[in-house]
Amino acid sequence: MLSTLSTNTKMQRQEGQKSRMEILVVALILLQTCSQVATAGTHVEYLPGFEGPLPFHLETGYVGVGDSAAEGGAGEVFYYFIESENNPKEDPLMLWLTGGPGCSSFTGLVFEIGPIAFKVEKYNGSLPNLVLRPQAWTKACSIIFVDLPLNSGFSYANTPHLQRNDWILIKHAHQFLRKWLIDHPKFRTNQVYIGGDSYSGLPIPAIVQEISNGNEEGIQPWINLQGYVLGNPDTTLEEENYLPTFAHGMALISDELYMSLQQNCKGNYIKIDPENKLCLRDLNSLHKLMSGLNLFHILEPKCELASPRPHGFWSRRSLINKFRRPLSSRLARPPMNCKSYVYFFSYDWLADDKVQEALNIRKGTIRNWQRCNNFNYNFTISSAFPYHVNLSQKGYRSLIYSGDHDPAVPFLSTQAWIRDLNYSIVDDWRPWLANGQVAGYTRRYSNQMTFATVKGAGHMAPEYKPEECFEMFIRWISKKPL
User: Fold this and answer.
1) Catalytic-labelled residue, pool 105, 142, 155, 198
2) Helices and strands counted in the chain (H then E)
3) pTM for the whole thing?
4) How confident is the model at residue 161 (pLDDT cuts 50, 70, 90)?
5) Lowest-pLDDT range, 29-33, 461-465, 471-475?
6) CA 340: distance to chain centroid?
7) Please, are residues 97 and 196 in contact by the beta-carbon 8 Å criterion?
8) Nearest-angstrom CA–CA distance, 351 and 354
9) Alpha-carbon distance 354 to 426, whole Å?
């Protein structure tokens, strides 16, 4: 009898332990599920300044990256995700980084390739209005616009001792994408591209290589990486060596000055011997002749930029930096004929409490949003050329485009490093059309690289020529010839 009671008691204890274990497992699953939901982003249906519900799927959220003791510190990367308006199940997925370093991806979303834009109208002090952009690249591609490096846009650091450099940016972008795909499993099989412009031309090829290496090492989730897209990209940091040739071809300087520059500077306009008085004299003449021009588009009026450019873009350009008019400590709104006029709208709009609430911004994380932050940044990549070499060997697709009126990263410099890759031409130089008109010129190479100029465009080509760039991207992402 005692033996039976003892056995029953033992069984009851085992059952109780089993029940507690089951409860614990369920609790852990629920905790994990809640955690995933909390980091998976939030659907945004309405935005202040836009009439009615958004006719596309917008999600915003944060993804944690880095480590407090390593990798330059930890933080939360803020993103805007626009689902493809065509077929999100089948269409490619692109991660987009705006240049700088330190510029918010809001620039790419609202001023370049996203489905919404600010309505260009005289500012009256009220909340700026939003309108649809018909030429959004999201018509054929889902795009994640990310604020990187940390402390760009609405991203923020969790540690006061934050380090910033190219390789930390690369590792954070890699971490972000794999974590984002864990939270969005339905996109794990979609083809993936990495895109950006300007300074992003340096880290993006390395990001692509980092993701590719991670796939080969078996890091999960596997990313269906296909290639990359770069607009007017910094690549070798020798871009300004092509500025005199660009200026001469655009009739900005005389034949005599151009020949004198070639003779006295011998093709090097970056590191000048201070004893080379003749070269310095010629460069000063070049500066005076171009000082009244817009640095990003020579046909546009010279205007305030609405935010100081990150020091990184300029500190590596001794010559081009001279062409920039110093920004006043208190910026004034430029005339409406300036492209930067609408840049000021981003400050007015994003400073609004209702806008930040709609975007699900965490209160207290960012004091004052800046379109381009000016913070300390260490440059650890001197050239992206070796990464283009490696990626070409691995067979990744790439689209490299250049607005042909940009003096900051002249199309000649981009053509030069592409030529140095030494791949054979499979589709020779020819015009490509949009709406029946020549929109630029293109050439395709055997390493699956397509180069295209955008006629009449400046540094951020889609901002100046949205219709043409839309046609270019839609054809390329659909694997059709330009």
Assistant:
1) 198
2) 14, 14
3) 0.89
4) confident
5) 29-33
6) 18
7) yes
8) 9
9) 52
Q: Is 392 a catalytic residue?
A: no
Kindly list the domain boundaries of the chain, sorted by start residue.
Answer: 1-39, 239-351
Does residue 208 contact residue 396 with C-beta atoms inside 8 Å?
Answer: yes
Active site residue 273: no
- Best CA proximity match to 320, nearest among 417, 247, 235: 247
- Report whether 315 contacts 353 (CB < 8 A): no
Task: Enter the tokens of residue 235.
Answer: 């690549």
* Parallel, antiparallel or unpaired: strands 437-445 and 449-454: antiparallel
Nearest C-alpha neighbor of 287 from the set 318, 250, 263? 318
- Asked if residue 25 has pLDDT above 80, the reply is no
Least confident of 73-87, 166-180, 332-346: 332-346
Is the per-residue pLDDT at 440 higher than 90?
yes
Round to whole Å and give the CA distance between 469 and 463. Answer: 9
What is the pLDDT, as a whole number, of residue 359?
Answer: 97
Residue 282 annotated in active site: no
Mean pLDDT computed over 89-105: 95
Res 373 pLDDT > 90:
no
Q: How far apart are CA 198 and CA 202, in angstroms?
A: 9
pLDDT above 90 covers what percent of the chain? 76
CA distance 404 to 383: 22
- Structure tokens belonging to residue 324: 């920039």
Mean pLDDT of 380-401: 97
Using 50, 70 and 90 to split pLDDT, how confident is the model at 333? confident
Spatial contact of 177 and 143, defined as CB atoms under 8 Å apart: no
Between β-strands 142-146 and 93-97, what pairing exists: parallel, antiparallel or unpaired? parallel
Set 248, 297, 388, 459: catalytic member: 459
Structure-block tokens of residue 479: 């694997």
Closest CA to 375 of 157, 120, 170: 157
Catalytic residue among 91, 105, 406, 413: 406
CB 443 within 8 A of CB 437: no
Nearest to 335 by CA among 124, 131, 122: 122
Q: Quick check: bond before 48 cis, omega within 30?
A: no
The DSSP output letter for 378 is B
Task: Name the residue with tokens 């591209």.
Answer: 193
Q: Do residues 380 and 163 touch, judged by C-beta distance below 8 A? A: no
